[in-house]
């Protein structure tokens, strides 16, 4: 396959030039390179000298009568080879002055090096040919500029209107006429527009296929899969990729579309965060600061008090209202609805006649920090909160689903410095609690021992966890996807068996030599030593993180 000129869409192909009136007047006949007529013509140049190659820089269509070309076969072959070496697209030779017909040596040499060689069997006006070719080039460049302006105007309008990432993906797909997918670092689909194609076919085995799509640059085309890919991120943090299906080398417009789309999506994600009500945004900032431990305690106390939520001298309760069934529909749309869910929880908290902070803390969870008088019984307040939520879940057009959510409660603490521990405990409770589909669901749950899995589940949408998992397990996941193996399962069995190879082999129903061979393969793919306790600990955490992300 010929190398693809990155600006090929701006230039006419040789086949188009052959159809120009001035060229057709010369009765053109293709003598060599018929398989390369799709090559772009960057410029035309008329020259008679034999050493013209040194004056060219590639992409030209050379026009000549051949009057000053070498007289011997070796010289003619060298002339053709020199033109091909500098990247000349093709040569049009007008016969009748020097040659009655093109010499076999020229034809053979041109065919060997893949140079398009055209014989003009009748006198042609080189100046007119040049004029018509250059007019086509200029027209194409103007059209490209107009298309660029249209793309710029469209995405600027989307940015100004605050379009969601889902809308941006839909617009990229509409303008390209092909499927577009937005994914996160864990290769999970956040938004997709199949452009009229079967959605199942576009997304079938997406994670495995996406892992195989690799590009060296920030924007690149993966020829084996047919996807044009660009990285999505803002403020120095990459959090996903935007992929456009092309099935052929992309045009400059395709590249421009995905890059502008990625930039608009990245900005939209920042804008979406600012759409919350000022009150809810402030609550969310404080809650996430508590969970992350990033807010100084005096500042937390002062800001919460200013919001009417006193923290000192009160009983403090960490509560999480979590959707247990995962996102329903595209993930970004779920994030949009989560803001409405936070407002619903805030209304329920007002119904319970309690003070507290309410805000989204991850894609499926709304956090509540209850502040109660020190002697007030916590359970009645929690009961009123859960009852109000249940009523709102059954109301018409409810934001909270009728089922598939849980209220998880951490320990009651009296000191602000213990709040982070209480929220982490509540997260573990939410992860382990049964859904309200259980035979005897409770209004809220307190479960003490969830351990590491619950913590990683809480962090499953954190870009840093996704990056860690990809760094630790990405090569192994890619190997499994490419070769149809299950080395990740072998690694999981080995670590779950406490690094006891014999027990792990028995549990996997494999012979020990076969199991040992697979462990050696894992070490080679990941470049780790499975006899190292620290390496195995890191891999085990990464596997738990992978489970949390996939859930």
From TrEMBL:
Residues 298-431 form the CdaR GGDEF-like domain. Residues 487-544 form the PucR C-terminal helix-turn-helix domain. Residues 16-137 form the Purine catabolism PurC-like domain. It comes from Longivirga aurantiaca. Pfam families: GGDEF_2 (PF17853), HTH_30 (PF13556), PucR (PF07905). This is PucR family transcriptional regulator. InterPro entries: CdaR-like_regulators (IPR051448), CdaR_GGDEF (IPR041522), PucR_C-HTH_dom (IPR025736), PucR_C-HTH_sf (IPR042070), PucR_dom (IPR012914). Belongs to the CdaR family. PANTHER family: CARBOHYDRATE DIACID REGULATOR, DNA-BINDING TRANSCRIPTIONAL ACTIVATOR ADER.
């Amino acid at each position: 396959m010929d190398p693809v000129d990155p600006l090929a869409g701006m230039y006419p192909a040789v086949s188009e030039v052959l159809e120009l009136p001035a060229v057709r007047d010369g009765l053109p006949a293709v003598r060599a390179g018929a398989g390369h007529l799709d090559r772009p013509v960057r410029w035309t140049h008329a020259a008679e000298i034999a050493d013209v190659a040194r004056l060219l820089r590639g992409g030209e269509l050379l026009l000549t009568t051949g009057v000053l070309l070498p007289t011997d076969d070796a010289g003619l072959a060298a002339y053709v080879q020199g033109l091909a070496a500098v990247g000349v697209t093709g040569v049009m030779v007008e016969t009748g002055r020097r040659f009655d017909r093109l010499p076999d040596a020229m034809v053979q040499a041109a065919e060997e090096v893949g140079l398009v060689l055209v014989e003009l069997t009748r006198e042609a006006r080189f100046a007119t040919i040049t004029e018509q070719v250059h007019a086509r080039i200029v027209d194409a460049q103007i059209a490209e500029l107009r298309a660029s302006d249209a793309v710029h105007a469209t995405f600027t309008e989307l940015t100004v209107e605050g379009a969601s990432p889902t809308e941006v993906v839909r617009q990229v797909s509409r303008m390209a006429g092909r499927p577009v997918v937005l994914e996160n670092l864990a290769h999970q689909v956040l938004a997709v527009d199949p452009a009229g194609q079967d959605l199942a076919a576009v997304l079938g085995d997406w994670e495995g296929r996406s892992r195989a799509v690799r590009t060296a640059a920030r924007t690149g085309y993966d020829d084996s899969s047919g996807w044009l890919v660009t990285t999505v991120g803002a403020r120095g943090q990459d959090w996903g990729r935007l992929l456009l299906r092309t099935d052929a080398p992309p045009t400059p417009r395709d590249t421009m579309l995905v890059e502008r789309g990625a930039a608009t999506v990245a900005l939209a994600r920042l804008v979406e965060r600012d759409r919350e009500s000022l009150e809810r945004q402030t609550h969310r900032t404080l809650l996430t600061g508590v969970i992350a431990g990033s807010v100084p305690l005096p500042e937390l106390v002062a800001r919460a008090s200013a919001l009417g939520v006193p923290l000192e001298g009160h009983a403090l309760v960490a509560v999480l209202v979590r959707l247990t069934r995962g996102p329903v529909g595209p993930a970004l749309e779920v994030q949009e609805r989560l803001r409405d869910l936070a407002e619903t929880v805030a209304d329920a908290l007002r119904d319970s006649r309690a003070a507290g902070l309410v805000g989204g803390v991850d894609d499926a969870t709304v956090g509540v920090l209850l502040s109660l008088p020190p002697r007030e019984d916590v359970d009645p307040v929690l009961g009123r909160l859960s009852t109000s939520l249940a009523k709102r879940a059954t109301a018409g057009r409810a934001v909270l689903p009728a089922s598939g959510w849980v209220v998880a409660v951490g320990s009651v603490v009296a000191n602000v410095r213990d709040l982070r521990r209480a929220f982490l405990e509540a997260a573990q409770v939410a992860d382990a609690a049964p859904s309200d589909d259980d035979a005897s669901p409770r209004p809220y749950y307190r479960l003490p021992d969830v351990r590491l899995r619950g913590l990683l589940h809480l962090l499953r949408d954190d870009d840093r966890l996704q990056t860690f998992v990809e760094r630790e397990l990405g090569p192994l996941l890619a190997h499994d996807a490419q070769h149809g193996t299950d080395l990740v399962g072998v690694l999981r069995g080995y670590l779950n068996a406490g690094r006891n190879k014999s027990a792990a082999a028995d549990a996997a129903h494999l012979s020990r030599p076969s199991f040992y061979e697979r462990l050696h393969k894992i070490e080679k793919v990941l470049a780790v030593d499975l006899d190292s306790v620290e390496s195995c600990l890191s891999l085990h955490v990464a596997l738990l993180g992978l489970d949390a992300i996939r859930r």
